[in-house]
Amino acid sequence: xxxxxxxxxxxxxxxxxxLLPNPFTWNRRFxxxxxxxxxxxxxxxxxxxxxxxxxxxxxxxxxxLQSLLSSYPPSFRSRPLFLSGxxxxxxxxxxxxxxxxxxNPIFPPSLRINLAGISIGNGMTHPAAQVRVNAxxxxxxxxx
Length: 144
Hints:
The protein has about 140 residues and is an alpha+beta fold. It has helices spanning about 1-5, 55-70, 90-105, 125-144; strands spanning about 10-15, 20, 80-85, 115-120. The protein has a domain at about 50-144. Helices cover about 40% and strands about 15% of the residues. Strands 1-2 form a two-stranded antiparallel ribbon.
């Protein structure tokens, strides 16, 4: 929700904690949907255990997107969808995109998700590999 309040949502939070219209909001040109992912985090409802693997998490997000798209007119499904996330969300964005790309051929065109791209900011797509080089990268930046 930080992105919604401080980056590209319809409002900005002022220093005196008032909401101000954001003149640079993305929702002037695009529809935005914020989903806490995986299920059980943030405000998402939890009916069972929190999924721990990327395949389950991607599958839950895929089901959520399919449910959302099925509640709108069929023409809505053809609109381009961009998945975006930051930090550790980079793992989930990549996994969800992979899952969508592998599910689309299984379904008829009328039920496919029109994935047009992904965006990952400061992504922790492979934390074990990335954390090992953080100190070395930081030293290179300082001494160059």
